[in-house]
Amino acid sequence: MRPAIRNFEVLFDDAERGALQHPAYARYGASLAFPASPPHRPWIFSNFVQSLDGIASFLGRHAAGADISRSPEDRWLMDLLRAHADGVLLGLNTLRDEAALASSRGPVFRIMDEELRGLRRQLGKPRERNIFVTGAARLDLSAYRAFDGEHVDAVIVTSPGGVARLAAQKGHPHVRVVAAGEGERVDLPEAMRRLRADLDVEYLLCEGGPTLNGHLERAGLIDERFLTLSPIEVGALVPREQEPAPFEKDHPPAHRPTTFNAPGFLAADAPWWQWLSCRRVGHHQFSRYRRRRVAGS
After folding, report:
1. What secondary structure, in 3-state letters, does the chain show?
2. Does residue 188 carry a pLDDT above 70?
3. Which of 103, 159, 202, 262 is the most exposed place for a label (fewest CB within 10 A)?
4. Which of 216, 158, 175, 160 is nearest to 41 (CA)?
5. CATH 3.40.1410.10, applies to 9-14+48-263+275-291
């Protein structure tokens, strides 16, 4: 039996209001809307959960964000954000890791709440899309449910080298491949331009992992952040007694990731953010931030 979803208590909300009226917004406390997307790329918003000390994953056998969150409202908010997105952007390692942890063909990243599926239809959004980023594209498409086409469309953003590898795989006509970059390296700004120009992706939700999110941040491509703060303290160093996941055994990690797992900024170029809204459910905090940009950036 699924736990009951409690209503969000709105502490403040300075974000835009959408014109659409829908019962699902009553739980959130207001309609959800975004500014017009840039003409050359999608408006990109990320969604992560972190502990009080800023950690995004226990790693090991508890690598999923749900083990940090432990909140049905956080899972519901994920579906609300997916309802407003033209695609869900993920690194390929996120898919591989979740498949390995579940000893299965992995998840399909889709809206589970039926009411929010209805909201998506009223918003006029296309069929749900999972968009995976991988430079080398060394994968067997048949090994993962996400590429079956049963519930969502799949897009793979890869390098020219990755395109050549994927071309050899037959039987997946519903998987769209987008090339951006050189050799086996993906150029993220170019990839975002291709998603907008070729697939009409206006609003893109990044769900991770932390490495992809960090590199998008480094490229100045994240416009908004939805951040759930869970009232749990985790610690950055992996304890010796933690059992590694199967894919960690050859190279056990020493540190747990934050939501930003990429080279950081200098003090002179670190981005600043506007705190747009804040909600709470019990002891969990749900915040929304928008990147503060100078004119023309």
Report:
1. CCCCCCCCEEEEECCCCCCCCCCHHHHHCCCCCCCCCCCCCCEEEEEEEECCCCCCCCCHHHCCCHHHHCCHHHHHHHHHHHHCCCEEEEEHHHHHHHHHHHCCCCCCCCCCCHHHHHHHHHCCCCCCEEEEECCCCCCCHHHCHHHCCCCCEEEEEECHHHHHHHHCCCCCCCEEEEECEECCEECHHHHHHHHHHHHCCCEEEEEECHHHHHHHHHCCCCCEEEEEECCCCCCCECCCCCCCCHHHCCCCCCECCCCCCCCCCCCCCCCCEEEEEEEEECCEEEEEEEECCCCCC
2. yes
3. 103
4. 216
5. no
Amino acid (1-letter code) at residue 147 = F
What pLDDT shows up at residue 249? 85
Does the predicted TM-score (pTM) go above 0.90? yes
Band (2; pLDDT cuts 50, 70, 90): low
Question: For 232-272, what is each residue's pLDDT tens digit?
Answer: 999 999 999 998 888 888 889 999 999 999 999 999 999 99
Contact 99, 144 (CB under 8 A): yes
- Sequence spans of domains, the chain: 9-14+48-263+275-291
- How far is Cα 8 from Cα 130, in angstroms, rounded to an integer? 27
CB 225 within 8 A of CB 48: yes
Closest by CA to 206, choosing from 41, 87, 289, is 87
Identify which of 6, 10, 48 has the alpha carbon closest to the alpha carbon of residue 30: 10
